Amino acid sequence: MEKSRRSFLKLVGISTLGLGASPVLDVFAASGGHDGKPKAGVSKRLNALTAKRWGMVIDTRKFESKEDLEPIIDACNKIHNIPKLENKRHEVMWIWEDEYKHVFTHREHEFIDERIKHLPFLVLCNHCENPACVRVCPTKATFKREDGIVLMDFHRCIGCRFCMAACPYGSRSFNFRDPRPFIKEENKEFPTRMKGVVEKCNFCAERLAVGKMPACVEASNGAIAFGDLEDPESEVRELLRSNYTIRRKPDLGAGPSVYYIV
Amino acid sequence: MLELAFKGSKKYWVWIVSLCSVIGFAFICYLWQLGFGLGITGMSRDVSWGFYIAQLTFFVGVAAGGVMVVLPYYLHDYKAFGRITVLGEFLAIPAVIMCLLFVIVDLGQPMRLLNVILYPTPNSVLFWDMIVLNVYLLLNIVVGWNVLEAERNNVKYPGWVKFLAYTSIVWAPAIHTVTAFLYCGLPGRGFWMTAILAPRFLASAFAAGPSLLILLALFIRNVTKFDPGKEQIQSLAKIVAYALILNVFFFLCEVFVVFYSQIPSHMSHLQYLFAGLHGHNAYVPWMWSAMAFMTIGIILLVIPTARKNESVLAVACIFVFAGTWIDKGLGMISGGFVPNPLHHINEYIPTIPELVITLGIYAIGALILTVLYKIAIGVKEESSGAKDTCESC
User: Fold this and answer.
1) Mean of pLDDT values over A146-166
2) What distance in Å separates residue A122's CA from the closest CA in chain B?
3) For residue B327, which of B299, B352, B356, B292 has the smallest C-alpha distance?
4) Are A224 and A57 spatial neighbours (Cβ–Cβ below 8 Å)?
5) A229 vs chain B: nearest CA distance in angstroms?
6) Residue range B87-100: average pLDDT?
7) Nearest to B45, CA basis, from A55, A235, A82, A207
8) Are A41 and A120 within one domain?
């Protein structure tokens, strides 16, 4: 991270020399140069956090019970205007918790240690390298960005739910009814959705764009790391180097970008 | 020719009016769904496709099944089918229209339907499904209509029609193959992830479509002056018999692979459907009925004396149609979603409004079929009045 920041600053320096102090450059030079410590590099556009491929490492050793996960899940629900629907069939979930045997369906065995057996695991969209949901979408309403984030265009989605059938992780939700009456406090900075469209975790793309880390990462007290998988110096790569990590259903070849330290 | 649909008996008009009232009632339910959202159905986060998509799958099969009268006539010069090819084509038309309607009622945002064309996405199988279904619809309308019109005018149909008929023969298996590809290429859905799915779909289609045709042919013989023909019905019955045997054989191949390999993610769906899983067993009686119906169907159709008795044949065809319908129109889609990718079990039970909307689309299909068959039979009756029935075949 330090390295990429440095290389950016170098770039800004060169550009400033070459082009002179145009107003546009002033803006990003100011944000990059004086704005304190950006976490994972700074792009030309304001102070957005950027990466070649975003990834997440969840250190499950730092969690003990459901109570530890609640603030994380709540943070996401609040920021993203996720409705609380009583009817289980209509549930909308971006990040939630489940047991080991459900999260790692192929790794369960009857003699697994008690801690793992009862530990709640966080589940969210894996932002796959080779996402099946993107492959099947008939309108490109769901798409993979260059930085690896799989996003939804709520205005283009026709609600065919092909992506839900394709996702091997059950990470997508459909608005079976108007979600707006079921949002406790609306966050005006993030759009609410309408009935009939699919939605899911967006790795907080809207927060990364303004230089903030994802809400769950921020609320996790350091238990969730987020960074550039392509950058050998990044925190996530450091964690992956020094810990044994697992991913959900790697045999399917989707290439999930969420790693778990168990 | 359309005027032929406007001259009918009182019974004909009662039938038309009752279909229209079912359609009207279902449309009100659809407006409710449009207002509330798909929440009025039994679908859920886990079972995200239900009755609508299952009916789409089944009726793509019925539509493709129509080719079983077209193919022998055009490719093998099997003259007997000449007089009923139009029945196959005119069955395919309402079947495809029903399929398209089932897709539309299943959409969360149907007003955005055109996004599929505005942002064409060739890597999505749904995009191809849209293309093959619409082209197949068009082919059957053009071929069916032109051949019938030529027959009415006592002339041979133009050469280009024959070319389109050949195209439709290739196209029929294509529509059902593409429909199978909607499901069988999805990672993490063990129930569908099998290369036998498309062949199985086709086999069940070539049993379901022609069995419905036989029932329609027997009905036509009873209520009109047009006789589709004993030989024709018997030939269709043989097609149904062997397609059905293949369907059951393909299914048993799947059962062997799944249960001999003992891979849980493939086994659990069949276990759920046929034995129930962790106390969830709503589909068990249905699935076993389907198997029983298809077995009875095979026995009745393979034994010559049974098949040649047209009353027994009619019963056999009802069994075949019902069996394949449960297999595909009920178990095939929701079975793939239960258990879900996290191995949770949430069953899917369709709701009343969902069933009413489905019934409405059935009624639309029946209405179009009635009108088209009325026209076709009107023409047949005219020409059989002009010359001896057997000569025209």
Assistant:
1) 97
2) 13
3) B292
4) yes
5) 24
6) 96
7) A82
8) no
pTM: 0.89
B347 touches chain A (CB under 8 A): no
End-to-end CA distance of chain B: 21
Residue A11 has pLDDT above 50, yes or no: no
- Residue of A84, A83, A77, A92 whose CA lies nearest to A204: A77
Residues of B in contact with A168 (CB under 8 A): 186-189, 341
What is the full DSSP assignment across A193-255? --TT-EE---TTHHHHTTT---HHHHTTTTSEEEEETT-TTSHHHHHHHHS-EE-SSGGGS--
What digits encode the pLDDT tens for the residues B382-391? Answer: 877 654 444 3
Q: Is residue A133 located within the same domain as residue A249?
A: yes
Give the one of A89, A159, A249 whose C-beta lies nearest to B108's C-beta. Answer: A159
Residue B252 DSSP SS3? helix
Q: Over the stretch A81-105, which tens digit does the pLDDT of each residue have?
A: 999 999 999 999 999 999 999 999 9
pLDDT at A7: 52
Interchain contact B66–A (C-beta under 8 A): no
For residue B381, what pLDDT is reported? 85
ipTM: 0.91
Alpha-carbon separation of residue B82 from A98, B14, B64, B233 (angstroms): 61, 31, 18, 13
**Pair of tokens at residue B124:** 């999505």
A211 shares a domain with A97:
yes
Interface of A with B in 237-256 (CB under 8 A): 249, 252-254
Do the chains contact at A176 and B37, CB–CB below 8 Å?
A: yes
Tell me how close the Cα of B42 comes to any Cα of chain A, in angstroms: 8
Which residue in the set B44, B46, B112 is minimally distant from A158, CB to CB?
B112
- Please check whether residue A169 touches B, CB under 8 A: yes
Cα angle for residues A202, A204, A205 (degrees, 5° grid) = 80
Tell me the pLDDT tens digit for each residue of B8-46. Answer: 889 999 999 999 999 999 999 999 999 999 999 999 999
Q: Which helix (H) or strand (E) covers residue A187, if one does? A: none
**Which residue ranges make up each domain of chain B?**
189-199+238-340
The domain in which residue A104 lies consists of 54-261
With CB atoms and an 8 Å threshold, state whether B109 touches A135.
no
Whether residues A70 and A142 fall in one domain: yes
Nearest C-alpha in A relative to B340 = A170
pLDDT of A44-53, one tens digit each?
566 899 999 9
Residues A121 and A230 in one domain: yes
**Measured between alpha carbons, how far is B377 from B369 in angstroms, rounded to an integer?**
12
Is the confidence at residue A38, as pLDDT, over 70? no
Contact A162 B124 (CB under 8 A): yes
Prior bond of B339 cis (ω within 30°):
yes
From chain A, pick out residues whose CB is under 8 angstroms from the CB of B112.
Answer: 139, 156-159
